[in-house]
Amino acid sequence: MQSKDFTMTANTTASSDYRVDVVQKAETISGVLEIISTGKKLIGHPGAFSAILSFDKLFPGFAGRCGIAPRDLPMLVMKSEEPGTKPLLAFKTGIEKGLLDRRKAIRLMIEDTVNHIVNDIAVTGAIPRIAQDVAFVDKLEPGEGEYLVSAFHEICNAFGIILSGGEISEQPDIFSNRGHITPSLVAIGELAPDDHIEGPRDIRTDDRIIVIASNGPHTNGYTLIRDIFMSQNPALFDKRLSDGRTALEAVLTPHLCYFFLIRKIIEGGIKPNGLAHITGGGIRDNLARILPDTDTKSTGYPTLNVDAEIDLSCLRIPEIFDLLRDRQSAPPREDDTMLRTFNCGVGMIAVVSPEQERPLLDLINATDFEAYTAGKIVSGGSRQVRYTSSIDWSRRPEKPVITTAS
């Protein structure tokens, strides 16, 4: 099973014996792709971060009635998302420890959900436009339904997204934690043809791999995080990191959103050849999703035999990941497990031509975000992400962690 077939959020480890079986999930996703990739209205490659749909094929004749060429029509980008098992940590431990009250926990989970979905749409070059939410709840307290919708509305509105409606599904006895809430979202974006970022079409040998730093685990790896903290040593929640935050605050930091940074990059005249949002499956599985494929029948793109090579010694590791690795006992403490389960400080990867490397680094590092080169595209043929060297777990980011969501 090649890593290119990872397309769903997964709180996974490298071991198929752990509670989330990454091997079985990969096989399931491969089968799902066989079903949905036969649609002729889809554009781009199977395994993309969002589904890209042809407006002209969805609405035949529309361009002609408007007197414009079909190639000038925008494409539609569609994505659904939820925050994994992070809500269990927020609604149970976060509230018990006094870090959050229920409304703060609700807002945090909505921030995580919206930011994740906006990132997955933005890596295509698209702008999110409209969304509908679904919230699965055990039991709502008076006023919480209105607060939940208002939080969705406010956070979506910050990105220019219209919240057009949704559903609150109250399901007593489904959740083991009383009062639990899991939000989810479906969003549609608009993609101008000239803004389309499509790695399998555009990535070339010798392109540079630029890391844009994360601010923590985001929304992945929380099954393992909860096991490490709650089952093995709950006192770890209160451990202070060097920046003054507790470990619990670090793992409940909102998923960082890169949308405005990506727009700044595009509007600044730098168009990456590929963008990868590093989520479930880590660097390897998510970067592989944007590499050119040797089987191009479904896309029509030119065949290009390349791999990606990452120098692990370049990675700048936020302290929380070092703590998680140090306290991990099941599965074994191995770098591969950490890299497959967590983003390990890599929130987004941009693949750019050698000529664009320095302008991109300068642009990003002039903001609060941190970026650095960690590898390049090399001749290969198996669409693999290869690691060289080893991680220096003591090497830290050079900028303070961004603790706000966007």
Structural class: alpha+beta
**Mean pLDDT across every amino acid position:** 87
CATH architecture of the domain at 199-388: Alpha-Beta Complex
Strand count, sense and closure of the main sheet?
6 strands, mixed
Compute the number of helices.
14
**Strand content of the residues, in percent?**
15-25%
3D shape: globular
Q: If you had to describe this structure to a student in words, what would you say it looks like?
A:
The chain is 33% helix and 19% strand. It is α+β, with helices and mostly antiparallel strands. The chain has a domain at 199-388: Phosphoribosyl-aminoimidazole Synthetase, Chain A, domain 2 (Alpha-Beta Complex), CATH 3.90.650. It is globular and about 55 Å long. The chain starts with 21 loop residues before the first helix and ends in an 18-residue tail after the last strand. The model is unreliable at 1-17 (pLDDT under 50).
